[in-house]
Design goal:
By secondary structure, the protein is α+β, with helices and mostly antiparallel strands. It has one domain (12-55). It is 32% helix and 25% strand. It contains one helix and two strands. The protein starts with a strand and ends with a strand.
Length: 56
Amino acid sequence: MTMIKWQWASFDELSLHELYEILKIRQAIFVVEQNCAYQDADDLDQVSWHLGMCTK
């Protein structure tokens, strides 16, 4: 059975590897798949809470 783990984190709690994965996924979904070129680094991530999910 696959276990799902959810995690809330502030920007400062994200590791460099977690942040890189977030940016990579957002770029793949919003820029590539939806063909929506936009400025992703908009200074909102630093004041946002981030919800992550992983499977084990």
